[in-house]
């Protein structure tokens, strides 16, 4: 199980990362994932350019297709699009764990 901590909900006692003094011209961003088993992954970009919804989808498709193939990428995207009305959030994890076929 993974849990995401945003800046506002970081557990007490954890250091908060400082904001950028270069705002608004240059803004960085980061994502940290901590697994319940203790593994932790962090990705930080020093300058992040805002992306449109279409940009995000195109980037997702390109990245997902390169790993799981076009058909599985479409299936994952469709599942994510339907999350608001779904009672089975685990389906996304199942699709992400499955290998391309």
Gyration radius, in Å? 17 Å
Number of helical stretches of at least 4 residues = 3
Largest sheet: 3 strands, antiparallel
Average pLDDT score = 78
Q: Stretches where pLDDT falls below 50 for ≥5 residues?
A: 1-13
- Beta-strand share of residues: 15-25%
Could you state the oligomeric state of the chains shown? single chain
The proportion of residues forming helix, as a percent range, comes to 25-40%
* Order of secondary-structure elements: EEEHHH
Task: Specify the overall morphology.
Answer: globular
**Structural class of the secondary structure composition?**
alpha+beta
Distance between the ends: 25 Å
Number of strand segments: 3
Strand neighbour order, sheet with most strands = 1-2-3
Could you describe the 3D structure shown?
The protein is an alpha+beta fold and 101 residues long. It folds into 2 domains: 2-45, no CATH class; 53-97, no CATH class. Helix content is 36%, strand content 16%. The chain contains 3 helices and 3 strands. The chain has helices spanning 53-68, 70-81, 90-97, and strands at residues 2-4, 29-35, 40-45. A 3-stranded antiparallel β-sheet has the order 1-2-3, with no helix packed on it. A hairpin with a 4-residue loop joins strand 2 and strand 3 (40-45). Helix 2 (70-81) packs antiparallel against helix 3. The protein starts with a strand and ends with a helix.
